[in-house]
Amino acid sequence: MIRGAACLRAFAAVAAGLVLTACERPPVASVQTGFRGTGMEQVYNPRIVAKQVALNAAPAAAGPLNDEGPKAKDVYKNVQVLGDLSVANFNRHMASITQWVAPEAGCVYCHNAADFADDSKYTKIVARRMVQMTQKVNSGWQPHVAATGVTCYTCHRGNPVPQQVWYAPPERRLAANSIMGDLAGQNIAARSVGYSSLPNDPFTPYLLDAKPIRVNGTDALAKSGAARNLNSTKQTEHTYGLMMHMSTSLGVNCTYCHNTRDLLSWERPQRATAWYGIRMVRELNNDYIVPLTANFPANRLGPKGDVAKVNCSTCHQGVYKPLYGAQMAKDHPELLSVSQSKPSGGLPPPLSEAMRSVLYFGVGSAVLEGEQAKGLAELINTMNSTPTVKVAISGYHSASGDLAFNQELAKQRAFTVRDSLLSAGIASERVVLEKPVQAEANLQGEDPAARRVEVMAQ
Ligand code: HEC
Ligand code: HEC
Ligand code: HEC
Ligand code: HEC
C-alpha cells in the first residue's frame, strides 16, 4: 500500500513535469517595436534563442574561387546547367553541394561512381533542377531574399531531404455531412498550424494554389447570389492557419508583420517581404518541385502521392531570417544568376560563314532539327543570292562506335543536305558530294561537334 502511494506520487511528479514542459520556463524577454502601450513587441525566450543560434550557424565556404583554365562544358560530357564555370569552380561547387546535401554518402549520393556523366540516379536529375531553382530565388526574388540570398544549405542543412517540408495530409474519413460536419482539417492540433485547432492544411490553398488570403470582410451583410460575401468565418480560419505557420516558421509573433490594431494595414515592412515570400514559395513548388514528382521513388512521396514541398519553415527553420541572415550565397556566384550556358550534350549552333557552313546532327540521326534547320535555310539563301558559287558537301562522323555504321550515317547526313539544296531549286551541277570523313578522335567520349556536315564554297 505504501509502495502504491509512492508510485502514485512519482507518477504525479512525472505527469506534472510533462505538463510543465509544454510551457516555457521564465525568464521571457521582450523587445518593443512600436509605441509604448500598443502591444507592438516581440516576445522571446533567451534559452530558445541560444539553442537556435547554435543550429543556425552557416558552414565555411569551400576554398577560394578560380576562374582560370578550361570550362566545364569543354571538359565534361554531360553538363547542362553549369557548363560556363571553370573546371576549378565546377569542382568547388560539387564539393559544396556534397557538404550541404549529402555529407555522409558523398559524391555517390548523386553519381554512378563508374561514370560521373551518367544521369541514372534520380538524385542527380533533382539536384540539377535544384541548381536552377536556387539561381532563380537569388536572381528573381530579391524583394524577398535581398542580397542575403540562399544556397542549398539554407534548406538542406546537411540532409538529403530538408527537415521541414510539407505533404498534403491524408483525407479524414468523416464525410462532410456526418454528424460532426465538415471538419476542414480542424481540431487536430497539427504542427502545421502551431498546434492550434485551425484547419491543418494551410499550404495546399495558399502555397500551391493561389486562393485569396485576405478575407477580412469590408461588408457587414451576408447577401446572396453573385453578391454574396465570401469573407466568412470559415475562410478566415484558413487564413489564420497560414498565419500561425508563418509566425512559428519565423519564430515571431503576429506583431512582427502586423500592427494588430489594424490587421489590414501594410505599415510593417516585414509584411510586404512576407507577401513576396508567399508568391516565391508558390513558384518554387509549382515550377520546380511538383514537376519532378515522377522522378522521385515512392518512398519519398506523401500519403497522397505528392512530393515533399517548400513552405516558410523550409528556409527559415524558426528564425526571422534563415541562418540569422548569414551572407552565404555571395561566396557561391554560380548560384546567383540563372545559367544561360548551352548544354554540353546538346548541339553547337549551326555555323554560316561566306565560304563555309557547318550543320550538326543528333546521335544516330540524319535529320536537321530546330536551330540546325534554320542554318540550312540560311545556306540556301546564300546559294540563291550568289548563283556562281558551287559547294562541296562532306559528312563527318564521330570516332566512337562501329565504323561501317558511322560511314553510312555520315553519307545519309550529306544526302540530307544535298537533297534539301536540290529541292530548293539549286542546280545539281553546283553541288558535289565528298567521301565521309572521320572526325578527330575525342578522348572525352561522344562529342556533338563530330556529328556534322560541312559545306565548303568553291
Ligand atoms: C547533390 C547531388 C550531387 C553530388 C553530391 C555531387 N554531384 Fe557531381 N553532378 C551533379 C549534377 C546535377 C551534375 C550535372 C551538372 C550540370 O548539368 O550542370 C554533376 C556533374 C558532375 C561532373 C561532370 C560529369 C560529366 O562528365 O558530365 C563531375 C566530374 C562531378 N559532378 C563530380 C562530382 C564529385 C567529384 C562529387 C563529390 C565531391 C560530386 N560530383 C557530388 C550532382 C551532384
Ligand atoms: C527552397 C529550399 C531548397 C533549396 C534552396 C534546395 N533544395 Fe533540394 N530539395 C528541396 C525539397 C523540398 C526537396 C524534396 C525533398 C525530397 O527529396 O523528398 C529537395 C530534394 C533534393 C534532392 C533529392 C534528395 C532525395 O534523397 O530525395 C537533392 C539531391 C537536392 N534537393 C539537391 C539540392 C541542391 C544541390 C541544391 C542547391 C543547388 C538544393 N537542393 C537546394 C528543397 C530545396
Ligand atoms: C511574416 C509576416 C506575417 C506574420 C508573422 C503574420 N502575418 Fe498575417 N498577413 C501577412 C501577409 C503578407 C498577409 C497578406 C497575404 C496576401 O495577401 O497574400 C497577411 C494577412 C493577414 C490577415 C488578412 C488581412 C486582410 O487584409 O484581409 C489576417 C487577419 C492576418 N494576417 C492575421 C495574422 C495573425 C492573427 C497573425 C499571428 C498569428 C499573423 N497574421 C501573422 C503577414 C504576416
Ligand atoms: C528560399 C528560402 C526562403 C523561403 C522559402 C522563405 N524565405 Fe523569408 N527570407 C529568406 C531570406 C534569405 C531572407 C533574408 C533577407 C534579408 O536579409 O533581408 C528572408 C526574410 C524574410 C522576412 C524579413 C525579415 C526581416 O526581419 O526583415 C520575412 C518577414 C520573411 N522572410 C517571411 C517569409 C514567409 C512568411 C515565408 C513563407 C511564405 C518565407 N519567408 C519563405 C528566405 C526564404
List its salient traits.
60s Ribosomal Protein L30, Chain: A, six-stranded mixed beta sheet, 458 residues, binds heme C, alpha/beta
Q: How does this model look, in words?
A:
- The protein has 458 residues and is of the alpha/beta class.
- It has a domain of 107 residues: OmpA-like domain (60s Ribosomal Protein L30, Chain: A), CATH 3.30.1330.60.
- Helix content is 36%, strand content 7%.
- The protein contains 13 helices and 8 strands.
- Strands 3, 4, 5, 6, 7 and 8 form a 6-stranded mixed β-sheet that branches.
- Helix 5 packs antiparallel against helix 10.
- The longest helix has 21 residues.
Summarize the structure.
It is built from 13 helices and 8 strands.
Q: Mind sketching the topology for me?
A:
Blueprint: H1 2-21, E1 29-32, E2 41-44, H2 46-55, H3 72-75, H4 87-101, H5 122-140, H6 142-145, H7 152-156, H8 203-208, H9 233-250, H10 269-289, H11 312-316, E3 351-352, E4 356-360, H12 371-385, E5 391-397, H13 403-423, E6 431-433, E7 437-438, E8 452-457
Parallel strand pairs: 5-6, 5-7
Antiparallel strand pairs: 1-2, 3-4, 4-8, 5-8
Helix pairs in contact: 5-10
One heme C binds next to α6, α9, α10 and α11.
